[in-house]
Design brief:
By secondary structure, the protein is of the alpha/beta class. It contains 10 helices and 5 strands.
Length: 172
Amino acid sequence: MGKLVVSDTNIFIDLIHMGLLRDFFLLPFDITTVDFVIRELKKAGQKETVLEYEARRELKVIEFSEAEIEDIFNLKQSTRGNVSYQDCAVWFCAKKINAAILTGDKSLTIRAKNDNIEVHGLLYVLDQIVLNKIIPAYLAADKLEELAKENKRLPEDIIKDLILKWRSSTSK
């Protein structure tokens, strides 16, 4: 059994965009998500691509009972700010199954960490893919550089450091 993680929508979207979703599922993680996240995958092929991993039993998709949905609603009501219902579902699930959260959402990160839940983002996932020798460091650097041009919410300084680290650790 690997590290238990609950993935948020943005992790799947970025990994699909980078062509690294298959590599994500090669990590020593037990990957879970919630049905609300699956419903947020809107672009052509995203939902089907992710659900292929559920069909192969590499991804567990949690569906909630009515009582749990009410608990998630109450969690959403108790938070101030812009934490979405989907984010609250990820947060609730991680707390319930004692898992880390994988997200790029700042509001969810802050609230989950305040609730003593381990939280990591896309850069952690990419670093784990490199550290586990699933893809070479130079390829991760190239992929991250491409994504950073389009995804302006990623932390520019950390990205530069990570790309420099990967490029200096290996040669093509």
